[in-house]
Amino acid sequence: MLVNFILVGFGASLGAMLRYGISVFVKSKWKTHFPYATLFINVTGSFLLGFLISSALGPVWQLFLGTGFMGGYTTFSTFKVESMELKWKTNYRVLFSYMGFTYVLGLVAAFIGLMVGI
């Protein structure tokens, strides 16, 4: 039982560090109001989680990579906060583009990941 918590925690810390690194890199390269970093992270995370779920990995790997790493890597809360910031700035074009791309591309990426992992 304790081993499972350690697996999830270690995976989550690695996922969070990768998310932070990608976010810093993307924001340093593209100065824009559109949150490309979070969009990229959540769409790639949807694909990877779909792939992991449909793959033949054992329960230990599912905990470490699925619950831990992908839980630390993807960021639904940041998506919501950035969406609210765009609303408060009345940047509706970017807001609706961001929300639409995140939901549609995330679902498509998850579906593709599920199909690839089979």
Automatic annotation (TrEMBL):
Activity modulation: Na(+) is not transported, but it plays an essential structural role and its presence is essential for fluoride channel function.
Organism phylogeny: Bacteria, Bacillati, Bacillota, Bacilli, Bacillales
Protein name, UniProt field: Fluoride-specific ion channel FluC
Sorted UniProt keywords: Cell membrane, Ion channel, Ion transport, Membrane, Metal-binding, Sodium, Transmembrane, Transmembrane helix, Transport
Topology class, membrane: Multi-pass membrane protein
Gene symbol of the encoding locus: crcB
NCBIfam families assigned: PRK14214.1
Gene Ontology cellular component annotations, sorted alphabetically: plasma membrane
Family: Belongs to the fluoride channel Fluc/FEX (TC 1.A.43) family.
GO MF assignments: fluoride channel activity; metal ion binding
One Pfam family per UniProt: CRCB
Transmembrane portions of the chain: 6-22, 34-54, 60-79, 91-116
Protein's job: Fluoride-specific ion channel. Important for reducing fluoride concentration in the cell, thus reducing its toxicity.
